[in-house]
Amino acid sequence: MTASAETTLAPPDEAGLAMLVAAAHTAREPLAIEGRGTKRGLLRPVQAARTVSTRNLTGITLYRPSELIISARAGTPIPEIEAALAEHGQHLIAEPPDTRAIFGATEPATLGGIIAANLSGPRRIAWGAMRDHILGIRFVNGAGEVLRSGGRVLKNVTGLDLCKLLAGSYGTLGVITEITLKVLPAPEATATLLIEVPDIATGVRALSAGLGSPFSVTGAALLPGTPTIAALRLEDFAASVTYRAGRLRESLAPFGPATLLEGDPSRSFWREVRDAAPLAAQPEDAIWRVSVRPSAAPAVALTAETLGGRTLLDWGGGLVWVAAPATAEAHAALVAAAAVTGGSCTLFRAPAALRLTVAVLPAEPAPLAAIARRVKAALDPAGILNPGRMGPAP
Amino acid sequence: MIALPPPKPEILARRAEIVAALSAIVPGDGVISDPTRLKPYETDGLAAYRQMPLAVVLPRTTEQVAAILRYCNENGVRIVPRGAGTSLSGGALPLADAVVIGLMRMNRILEIDLDDRLAVVEAGVTNIGITNAVSGDGFFYAPDPSSQLACMIGGNVMMNSGGAHCLKYGVTANNLLGLKFVTIEGEIVTIGGAHLDAAGYDWLGLITGSEGQLGLVTEVTVRILRGPEGARAMLAAFNGTEIAGAAVDAIIGSGIIPVALEFMDKPCIHACEAFAHAGYPLDAEAMLIIEVEGSTAEQDDLLNRIKAICERFNPISLKVAESPEQSLAIWKGRKGAFGAVGRISPDYLCMDGTIPTSELPFVLKRIGELSTQYGLGVANVFHAGDGNLHPLIMFDANDADSFHRAEHFGADILRLCVEVGGCLTGEHGVGVEKRDLMTVQFTARELDQQRAIKTAFDPQWLLNPAKVFPLQGDLLPPLAAE
């Protein structure tokens, strides 16, 4: 049973949210933390009678295009932020995926939710993850205190970086209430080189060759199938894109025959890769995100294939999306395949039964797990924030 | 002067025993305890502060580092980690009762993988050493602090170092994949690895920039990038700092992200020109150095766009490099800026605040007023694209009053940075230098939260004490979690 069936409280502002958390802290009462709840199917279900949502903490609070920064409250829907940026010819650098199709959500994700899950799209390979562009956050810790980390400037090493600690902590260390991000000008032009490659291993080598070229590839994905397609994206001023597409095509010619997608078809191609649409996951499939060094990707893909699954490779092979039957055996096989080269495997979507029985995230070595427990206690002394979200509560 | 905590007498009394124990862990010439040989370790890049350590230990392996930490933890001995000792914030300043762990002997490059675009190196490899190891194949390691010839990657990780090219390529934290991390208990753990965005809490992000407060790093897996086909610089000089600031806004607003965008004010232009003879315009109030990358045609296109933008702001001088040699000449003065100021003043303090770029004219005006108030010269050099300001305050270390005024001047500048929406440090770290200013930027609760996280890693507060956090009582009260 997920928290959504129980009471959801959506305070109108940060102060109201802090009061709720403080009261729950005193009562030692667990809370499920969410934005619009679009990623409830991600990781493990939370065991809590009450849910606190940031959905009413909305609005862009500061946008300075010439300073490359935007601040917004955590509950602001991602499309609202993207639209505001587009008006000034800018964009979210890490192009976070729209996971509505994957999780069957009807509402768009919130900025806070995307940050709390540190979800990044194809441009991550060239320009960094969501967590890399967080300049500052405001959050409520597990004791109900409103705190800040970072700020609103592009370079800041003052004090411990709690922005990065809270990004990807899935609401277990604090409730993020406002975020300041670095943004960049959206490119004038884009083009994608599509290369037919004989197999996944050749495809990954083609992506590596492209990423290792001087032509600033900003997306590198592999779509296994008949035929298997290696896709490399260029984004910049139009003349640059034309020039580099020509040079890239020349240098990657040995990998297979190529075609070029330009403009809008290129943009929609990468939106689909971003949202893992080419994975074509069936409703009953589980979905994993496996992060490995690119040269290890073909072995992970092979494992997925033997499980009767499908794959989509992004980040030059560094991210392997897998859709396969939702079994504990499949999970164990993928975890093992990732571990061969020290990579990590996240169970991204699965029926609750599977999510509750396997480790959805890789276990940490004992000394780190001990530190993790103490850090959790430092931020959330009563252990009330999203218990069980990342693993069974101790 | 910033206060250091009193040494623990019981540790000072056990010095011989501690040295013997460390010598057993790192045999041979691994431990330094005689005063003459300890002398080079008494300070770092913040040379106004000096303190001889209890001893220096120079391990060669991660296992030795782990054994040293285990011993120190069990015996309550404080630890100061050190790379090349280039910290400008006193991050490696010793304490009288602390053991300095110098990682310079851990200087091997363990793996280079061009296909996966990564390098695994020990903490004592220099920043430039990584680039040198891969530059033959056209690759480089992106963060480039000005101390890159000397500074070590372990120190870069601990301070989250930046450089002149981070507008495009990011700082250290954005260019790492994994760490070998040693806890205060002497446990060796792998953080991240050779892959992006390891699952679980972002320990990599938390440890990077933690200034030695959480543990030691002995190995680093960095991302390496293929270099561009070429790069070229241009120079644009203006009649006023606010005009140059507006030109910066217009360049960024046009959709161009130059790989570097540096700003120098008049005193800095004069100091650099006298030093480097780079052909800088001496009548300008402010000057920009702008660098772009790509093929020759792409460079031409970008430089023409930037030139056209600058022309709207009535530049005094616009000079586009026609060759790599001319680019080098334009950069020569900027790269020598610190040395150039060192020639016109016996000593200088290099500040490191960051401000919203729109506040630049106001901040420079206020710095000018403070310069008059304190009777000390200042030259400003500034990473204009990202708002990271480096005022160089000139003083004479042989004159105690001059140093005292310089410190107050610097603190006022950093307070000003915070007041206008910026921060105390953009890339040099808090160290000992800015420790007592942390209350300007953070509330007491925010600092307590950071302290509690430090305590989660280092319950006895033995790691790099007296840095980052304002002293409380003797040194700390490690806060209970609840």
Automatic annotation (TrEMBL), chain A:
Domain named FAD-binding PCMH-type: residues: 1-186
Cofactor(s) required, per the database record: FAD
Keywords, sorted A to Z: FAD, Flavoprotein, Oxidoreductase
Protein's UniProt keywords contain Nucleotide-binding: no
InterPro entries: FAD-bd_oxidored_4_C, FAD-bd_PCMH, FAD-bd_PCMH-like_sf, FAD-bd_PCMH_sub2, FAD-linked_Oxase-like_C, Oxid_FAD_bind_N, Vanillyl_alc_oxidase_C-sub2
UniProt-recorded Gene Ontology molecular function terms: FAD binding; oxidoreductase activity
Keyword Oxidoreductase: yes
Name recorded for this polypeptide: 2-hydroxy-acid oxidase
The organism of origin for this protein: Neoroseomonas lacus
Gene: glcE2
TrEMBL record, chain B:
UniProt KW keywords: FAD, Flavoprotein, Oxidoreductase
Database matches in Gene3D superfamilies: 3.30.465.10, 3.30.70.2740, Vanillyl-alcohol Oxidase, Chain A, domain 4 (1.10.45.10)
Keyword Transferase applies: no
Chain ranges of the FAD-binding PCMH-type domain: 49-227
Domain of life: Bacteria
Cofactor entry: FAD
Any one Pfam family match given in the protein's UniProt record, by short name: FAD-oxidase_C
MF terms (GO), sorted A to Z: FAD binding; oxidoreductase activity
SUPFAM superfamilies the record matches: FAD-binding/transporter-associated domain-like, FAD-linked oxidases, C-terminal domain
PANTHER family: GLYCOLATE OXIDASE SUBUNIT GLCD
Name of the protein in its database record: FAD-binding protein
Origin organism lineage: Bacteria, Pseudomonadati, Pseudomonadota, Alphaproteobacteria, Acetobacterales
